[in-house]
Design a protein that fits this description.
The complex is a heterotrimer of chains A (184), B (351) and C (304).
Chain A (H helix, E strand, L loop, with lengths): L18 E6 L15 E6 L14 E4 L2 H12 L6 E7 L1 H13 L7 E5 L5 E5 L5 E5 L3 E3 L6 E9 L4 E6 L17
Parallel strand pairs in A: 1-2, 1-4, 2-3, 4-5, 6-10
Antiparallel strand pairs in A: 6-7, 8-9, 9-10
Chain B lengths: L20 H5 L17 E2 L19 H14 L4 E3 L4 H18 L4 E6 L2 E6 L4 E6 L10 H6 L5 E8 L2 E8 L8 H4 L4 H4 L11 H10 L7 E10 L10 H9 L6 H4 E12 L6 E11 H4 L3 H12 L3 H6 L6 H8 L20
Antiparallel strand pairs in B: 1-8, 2-7, 3-4, 4-5, 6-7, 6-10, 8-9, 9-10
Chain C lengths: L1 E11 L2 E8 L12 E9 L2 E8 L9 E6 L7 H7 L6 E9 L9 E7 L4 H6 L7 E6 L5 H7 L6 E4 L7 H6 L5 E6 L2 H13 L7 E3 L11 E5 L4 E5 L5 H7 L17 E6 L2 E2 L7 H6 L2 E3 L4 E2 L3 E4 L2
Parallel strand pairs in C: 7-8, 7-10, 8-9, 10-11, 12-18
Antiparallel strand pairs in C: 1-2, 1-6, 2-5, 3-4, 3-6, 12-13, 14-16, 14-18, 15-17
The chains are: A alpha/beta (184), B alpha+beta (351), C alpha/beta (304).
Amino acid sequence: MSKSRPVYAPFGLDPAGRAHLVVTSLDAPPEGIEDSLANIEAWTVKHNGPGVPAPAVAGVRPFRSTTELLAQLSHRLTRETAGLRLYAVGSEAFIWDAYNAAIAAGLHPSEISLHRAGPLVRRVYCSHCRTIIEDVPANIVACSSCEAALFVRDHFSRRLAAFMGVKVDAEVPGEIPEAEVFTS
Amino acid sequence: MKLSLKPQETFRDDYTFSNSDEAILRFPFPFPEDNYMYSVNMEPHVRGGASPVFNAVFDIDEHYIGDMADRAITLEQDPLRCQVLPHMEEAEWDTLELIMENLANDYPEHFSLAKNGDEWHWINRPLEIDQKFTFGRAETLPYGPFEYITRQTQGDFSLQDQRDNNLFMDGGMVTSQADWSLNFDIGMSFHEWHGPVPLAHESGVFDRALQYLLRLQYGKPVRRLNWTMTANPRLDTSPENYPLWGPEKAEITPENVGHRMCLRVELQSLYRLPRSNAILFSIRGYLIRLEELAKVKKWAIRMHRVMRDLHPKIIDYKGQSRYRQHVVDYFAPHDDGRVLNPGIAAEQDSI
Amino acid sequence: MKLKIEVIDTLTPGIRKFTLAPVDGSPLPRAGAGSHVVLEIPGPGRVWKNAYSITSAAEAPAYEIMVRRVEKSRGGSAWLHDHAKAGDVLEVQPPQNLFAPQRLAKRYLLLSAGIGITPFLSYLKLPGLVYELHHCCKPEDEAAFLALLPSGPQVTLHTSRNTLNLEELLKRQKLDTHLSVCGPESFMDVVLATASHAGWPAAKVHKESFGGATGGEPFVARLRRSGVTVTVGREESLLDAMEAAGLAPPCLCRGGACGECKLHVLDGVPAHHDHYLSEAERAANNEIMICVSRAKTPELVLDF
């Protein structure tokens, strides 16, 4: 992690792990994992029509939502034994939600590997009213609750899985700079 | 130590805060040279040294009662200004013991601590507290032990767990901070919570500071001074309430900068805690209005030079872009170009 | 600080327990679980500085330590067994803690052998600790160790290798468990290797490392700035030799773990035995931890 804005490595399995669980918010696991080490399981997000779960096939198990996946993840990790490595692939918000579920289950950060995929949007925490705003594409966003125009700092909290938003025009209300789209 | 306490004082709304001449002269001026750059600058936290605020382990001053009343208001409005993660309970008791023992030892006219095994009796005369409790049993206190004692000690505090060759901020009492959020930062590692500070990362200051602190020994605390500026003597300059105090910065004019603008100095001290092996970080803030500071000739001149030559990134990070020129202009008339002695001492005995 | 030996108990022929109390009745600095103290043990013409885990609880009014008489002792433990008596006063450095429990671990697997039990004795005094302890000892010492440990399914003594199935034990631990190991180097090496093979990440495996100073071939160290040359004997460390020569290099843990005693190498090739330097730093051979490391070349020149 560089200062407090996380930096991500490319996806790869840890050869020191005895078993591997890959969870992703996408509808398919990362390329090529079927061919590598044995003892891998992948969880994806996909459904077969409204509300209908898709079947698990060849070590790939789909869930109907990230919420369902994360709840199952917590339950699974409390039953797992030493040597497991967890990999989370997907949006920044999802991968850190998976991270926090793993930490709560007692994993150490070195057993967890995070890889970001998808649009460059951020989850933002409003410092003033504590509201979480999802999928923010640029560094100025209006808080959906208290309406403050928030500047999104590069300061990231793993615990909240969000970036810090602070009122950009607190000193002179109305003086709001141009927003810049996120490039990282 | 003889100390007379102001019965009340406000750090918000009407801002009745002011420093007596005695308080001005004992102020921990942070600039030993005519220019400023970040450094690790830690020294042993022993009694005495360059400033009178170093004479006690936890310094109490004339603002004690008003300071603690202001903390109580902030906590009433936002209880999340004090949080301790569950695994830090031993560190809470370490903190309570350290502070109670030292306050009672340094200020016997204000604080007393009597122990009978685990049955302790704590008296805090200025705040009219008389508390009997069992050390180690949190249910015998009105708050958790860390919150209980930090509600009675000036300055903010954070608790750091040492693990993985790193320090993690796993608890804190933060009601007088220079613009950082405990609720956001709790759980962060040393480099993470220092993330927003510019320049220092490149020069490796934080790497060296971390290595130094990981080897901090019990019984050998360390300290350093840090500084910022605040428009009005406001303690709660939190991100949470920035919409409240932000506009006050924009209201600074050349006419009111002397009265309203304050230099805020943090005496940061760090203590290894014995049972938990955690580190207690005390961030003891001192406020002084610029017009009070200007009464010390050496400090007025040095302020002019430091503020005039401050690195742009530091100006920006410390949020001073809007009014820095007013500050420079305010002190300029005091600067007669003389050579100043290095060091932070006031070099005068009276105002 | 000066501490007096209040009580000496012989637990086994090779292990003695010492209770150390303040000479003047003033309160002792508190020692949290995992702490150790360094005793300065007087010998003929020199002082040995040996580190021992504190087995007593943080609230105890005196420190308890246990000392194994090392067979090829450099002197310190032999003196404590053969000459020390109740009432003797020793210079003791204040406690340090380089082996504190992991506050985030929900559960502990503790593995120890012989005198390696000592840091865990202080851990077991923490209220609410959730753990499984496996301790290996000689059959003749079993009774003595049993007397030190709580009874219950969480404690198992092994008097032969056959009853401890390390691989199975390590594989079946849940993910919220941390592993701590303390004992002879060879024992710890086997545990660490088995854990790594079972997929345990290094960050969840903790070993006590302060007792690790080993001897080796004699060599010469030239301290350039001091203008002093020392010969490091077979049974002493470079740090010991420098101190015997009247020098006072910085040091803290005396076990190669903390980084305090690092010196710059100006010439010669060090033999690294520490736990502090990175792979890259070891390969560069510009630094040496003088408390445990030695030399590959007959001479080292150091910047001190």
